[in-house]
Design a protein that fits this description.
The complex is a heterodimer of chains A (237) and B (296). Chain A is an alpha/beta fold and 237 residues long. Chain A contains 10 helices and 10 strands. Chain B is mainly alpha-helical and 296 residues long. Chain B has a two-stranded antiparallel sheet. In chain B, β1 and β2 form a beta hairpin. Chain B starts with a helix and ends in a 14-residue tail after the last helix. Classes of the chains: A alpha/beta (237), B mainly alpha (296). At the A-B interface, α2 and α3 of A face α6 and α7 of B.
Chain lengths: 237, 296
């Protein structure tokens, strides 16, 4: 158990009076890509928001062995969890470069400039548009910016909330290839929430299926792809 | 012609001071989309503190700087005590709180300094700088306008070149993403409140230093209405819009009233609001404001 990066147990989350998660349990190992699948309203986004401290929760969430439940979001980021929210969550009025600098807000080391350059190396289009306002970028570019911004905080764990949402299929493919490469080259651990089960399972190590706020199925990604029930429900037969 | 020029000079004087209070309101609106109705009274209290320090023998500009710092700290405390515990998305309670602060600060100033007008020390050299025909531009007007430009440049630099400024603009742009990036929202807004109060105190001090005015607890009431109108004209979230709005209101106040005889002097306020109505009809986000696009 000592080498588990994220350990979630008996997690419930509530919006006002409504309980959205009913005691879920899952974990993420270092260097893993874990995907949480589920239909609209199953509680996928809420799961990530619970980890980031953005909703009221009970149960336990341990990160690197420390409990992070009930911490404020800004402490959780400082512990090493970066969250790319649904719909990208960029700062539309700020320039691309300012967006990336906000991503590095929690840091005070001398490497920020170097990391900025490596972001630009990965996505040259962001370099070209670094002085443009983020609001002027296309959906795909916004997603690149959102992921780069999250990486600027040097996270140990990257939470991605439906990165494929609203993007053209070929752009989604490029994006996920990038995630896989990032995982292999930099060892970035990722917890991804997706509705696009096919592409997510193709690159993930393990997966969980969330149904109405409870974990219905879990297993190795390559086994889930071949699971009949999952094929029917999420992979179109 | 001379008369017109004189009116323009007056517009510059009044416009600059409205702009300084408007800038303070814009700072808070940018971050929270909240109008702080107590802004004028906070500025008035700050100006009284400046006066008091000066009476105790502190040199004039030293008193202004200490007064600005003091009202900044006071505003930070007000934010922490009365504003932060409320949901920033629910405006009605917050507006009522700022109205409450308005009344309390006004009463406190009245208790301490009474309602008798007191003369405020000169901040700038007196006399005329430029005389064109019969129109006179005083040093006071030039310095008031210059201070306004200086404050805008300082704020602009602070917001674009420093880390806290970047955080402040991030919070104005997207509250939720700011939290996810590790920005402490409460502290950042507190910084905005302090900055706004300091700018407001400078504005009120300059306003009260106008040779034709004296300071009293109600001094900012009229100025507040003009300043809110100026801020709205400029676009509510634009610093330079506040200046443009302030000058426009100053212009309307002095020129329109001079040349349109059926508008009596008492109606200047209404004339300013009519201009606001006309501008907002054609440019709903003001001169320089960000256009809000809502996804549906």
């Amino acid at each position: 158990m000592t080498n588990t990066l994220l350990e979630v147990d008996e997690l419930t989350a509530t919006y006002g009076q409504i309980e959205v998660l009913h005691g879920i349990k899952f974990h993420v190992q270092p260097n893993e890509i874990v995907v949480i699948l589920g239909a609209n309203g199953a509680g996928k986004t809420t799961t990530l928001r619970a980890i980031s401290g953005m909703v009221g929760t009970t149960g336990s969430i341990a990160f690197n062995g420390d409990s992070i439940i009930d911490l404020e979001p800004d402490y959780i980021v400082r512990k090493g969890i970066a969250h790319v929210p649904q719909g990208r969550g960029t700062f539309p009025e700020l320039t691309v470069e300012e967006n990336l600098r906000v991503g590095a807000f929690i840091r005070s080391d001398n490497e920020i400039k170097a990391d900025l350059d490596s972001c630009y190396e990965t996505y040259p289009v962001l370099y070209e548009r670094r002085m443009q306002s983020a609001g002027s970028l296309s959906g795909g570019e916004q997603q690149m910016l959102a992921v780069s911004r999250a990486l600027m905080s040097k996270p140990e764990l990257l939470l991605l909330d439906e990165p494929s949402l609203g993007l053209a299929p070929q752009i989604v493919e490029g994006l996920f290839e990038r995630f896989k490469k990032m995982n292999q080259e930099l060892g970035t651990t990722m917890l991804i929430v997706e509705q696009n089960a096919q592409i997510a399972l193709a690159m993930a190590d393990r997966g969980y299926v969330l149904e109405s706020g409870e974990i219905a199925v879990e297993g190795e990604a390559n086994l889930l792809v071949n699971d009949d029930a999952i094929r029917k429900a999420y992979l179109g037969g | 012609m001379d008369l017109f020029l004189q009116r323009l000079f007056d517009a510059l004087t009044n416009g600059s001071t409205y702009a300084l209070i408007a800038v303070a309101m814009v700072l808070i609106f940018k971050a929270t989309t909240l109008i702080n109705f107590a802004q004028g009274e906070q500025a008035m209290l700050g100006a009284f503190i400046v006066l008091q320090l000066w009476k105790w023998g502190i040199p004039m500009w030293g008193a202004v700087v200490i007064g600005m710092i003091f009202s900044g700290i006071l505003a930070a405390c007000l934010e922490r005590t009365f504003i932060r515990k409320f949901d920033p998305a629910d405006h009605l309670p917050l507006v009522i709180i700022t109205l409450g602060l308005f009344l309390v600060i006004n009463a406190v100033a009245a208790i301490i300094w009474r309602f008798d007008p007191l003369s405020f020390p000169q901040l700038f050299p007196s006399g005329k700088a430029v005389t064109i025909g019969n129109a006179r531009l005083s040093w006071y007007s030039i310095f008031a306008f210059g201070s306004c430009l200086l404050v805008l440049f300082i704020l602009q630099t602070l917001l674009t070149k420093t880390k806290i400024g970047l955080a402040f603009r991030a919070v104005s742009s997207n509250l939720e993403s700011s939290r996810l990036c590790g920005i402490k929202i409460g502290q950042t807004l507190q910084f905005g409140w302090a900055l706004a109060a300091a700018a407001g105190t400078l504005g009120a001090s300059i306003y009260a230093a106008n040779p034709v005015l004296q300071i009293e607890p109600t001094i900012m009431l009229r100025a507040l209405i003009f300043s809110i109108t100026a801020a709205a004209l400029g676009g509510l979230d634009s610093l330079w819009g506040a200046l443009l709005g302030g000058l426009t209101i100053g212009f309307v106040q002095s020129v329109v009233v001079q040349y349109i005889p059926f508008i009596p002097n008492e109606m200047t306020l209404a004339a300013a609001v009519v201009v606001l109505l006309i501008v907002l009809t054609f440019r709903p986000s003001g001169f320089l404001g960000t256009k809000t696009v809502e996804m549906v």
